[in-house]
Each structure stands twice: as structure tokens, then as C-alpha cells.
Amino acid sequence: MQALKSIKGRFGKNRIIMSKDIEASTTNSSNGAKKKRPHAIALFSGGLDSALAILLLLKQDIEVTALTFMTHFGCDATSDRSSCGSNPYPMADKFGFNVKLMHLGQKFVDIVVDPKHGRGANMNVCIDCRMLMINEGARCMEMMNADFLVTGEVMGQRPMSQRKPVMALVDKETDLGGRLVRPLSAKLLPETLPEKLGLIDRNQLEGISGRSRKRQMELAKEFGLDEYPSPASGCLLTDANYSRRLRDLLKYTAEINFTDLNLLRLGRQFRIAPECKLLMGRDENDNKALMQYSNKEVYTLEARETGSPFGLMYGSPTEEHLRIAASAVARYCDQRDNSEVNITVSYRGQDRVLTVSPAEESFLKEIRL
Ligand code: SF4
Fold it and tell me: With respect to CATH, is domain 2-223 assigned 3.40.50.2000?
């Protein structure tokens, strides 16, 4: 925050000082001093648009440091194909720019819990997300003494965050004093400060708008960018099933933590009662992953006499809740056709066996998350 204030102080409130600052740090051909190469921080998802934004700058001999964000919601750009992003390194290696990874951690969780600018069709908070990323980029810009910030946004491309009025709102709330540049749509947007100062040549930027990627593909060809990921649909917050689980978590948990969030991705899940939830592996990998979360404070359930999902029961279940959970585990074990199944319930190092009938599928459907 301090860093951002300092940006606003230097570059937002006093444009004359800002211009002098930048000019002093760049060129002075009259006295023969060497021109400083402009330096941009670029928000880089690893996708085509943000790559092209960077390439348009590199073409103008602008130094670029790319910033790739990660969150707990699938935007692990280095490994998660369901995210807004993709692995940033192949392109960075090919075109010779640096990438810095930054995990948004609790800051991102906070906007997901309480978004100022609402949600999209599911739990996605794209406007707050853009603002957070731009603010973090601005912090980085300040720390690295860079000249401006760049995004690969294309006007009108995404329904929530890339409409013109929303982009204007993002500009207003992040207030980088005109130092936010969107090279792909630059010619359709007001001139930015680095353009005015001659750090970037506006004529070499683009005027792309809308959802067609025709111009981007032409540019990719020009730049020799032959391999790039197809446009991703968004992070896990855009997924209806994940969003249902997250909504449930927020409804029944006063303070969520990173473990709660990580668990949302795993296995089958059932809301047994407001105070307890059952998680159950769908396959061996799920079972192994869930076992890593078992500890003395969590109930575990499994049919030890046969092939069985591994179940974890969170919260403070009553005996009745435990029997319901045991019958759900019985429904998915290899003895599901038996009239009764023995399920071992463990808690605080104590094992006991509950003999239950497998739950009806119709009942499980009602409580499934
Ligand atoms: S889908 Fe929206 S909320 Fe998710 S990472 Fe992308 S912009 Fe952010």
C-alpha cells in the first residue's frame, strides 16, 4: 500500500513532476548521455494475448519483466490447465524476457470472500481480480523502478472485466497515473503517459477489440509465435461445480483457510449437516490425497474389509451424522450390494466399527456438493 501511495504521489497527483521524473531517467541526447531503455512490467498469463502485448514492446526495444500470478483457485499457471493462465516459461525462453511468479495468497481469498465489484456467472470475481493484479503489478513496478505496467487485455473480449466502462473503472480505482498500457487495444483507448512521453510509439501498437482472434493470429505469425495455448475459460471460480462447493463452504464456515480451499477440489463431497461435511475419494489418487489431510481432529471412515473410498468427516458430527456418512461410504465401496457393510470410523486414535446399510443414491444426490 505504501508503495502504491508513493506511485500515486509521484505520478498520480502531480503530472508535471511525474513527467520530469521519467524524462530525467530516460533520454538526454543533447548532452550525449546514453538513452535509458524503458522498462515495463507486464502481467503475463502465458496465453496468446499477454504474450503479444509483450512482443509488441520487445519490438520497440523496451525491456520487459513479466509477472505471472498464482492463486488457490486454479491459476497455478505452471501446472494447472484449468486456469486463466498457462506455463509462462516456454514463451519467455523463446523470446528472451524474464518471468517472475507471484502467489496472491490471502489477498485473493479476501476478494473472493467479499468482492467489491460483484461476481460473474459463477463465483468468479474478475473485476476485483484485475484490480488486484494491476495493483500488485504496480507494486512490482515501483520496487523495480520500472516505467509503466502492461496488460494483454483486449477491449470487449471478456464479458465481465474487459468491457470499455469496466476498463475505465479499473483505471480509475487502480490509479496508476496513466501508466497502465494495453498494447493490443491501445489505439482505441486514450493516450497513456508513456506514449505521451515517447517511451512507446503508439503507432506500433494495436487497435483490436472484440472476441475474434483473427488479428492476434496474424500477429502471432508475424512474431513467429507458432505454439500458444487455446484461450482458457477461466479459473476454477468460473466452474459451476467448484462454485457450488465454494458457496457451501462460505455459508457454513466462519473463517476459511487454505486447507479448506485446497480440499474443495478433491473427491466426492456431501453436506451431511450444517456442522459437518463428508469428503470421499473417487479413486486411488483421491484417496491418497485425502489421507494426507487426515489428522487427530478429523474423523476418517472406510470399509476395511473390501475395496473402499477413503472418507474424511470435517466438523462436529453427532452419532446420527456419522452413521449417515458411513452409509455414504458403504454406497461406494465394493460391498455396495450387500444389505449391511462394516465401516471403520477413526477419531483421535480410536477405531470403532459401524454396521450400516448403503445409502440410497437418491438421498446422496440431495446432499451432494
Ligand atoms: S477467471 Fe476471472 S477471477 Fe478467475 S483468474 Fe481469470 S480474471 Fe481472475
Answer: no
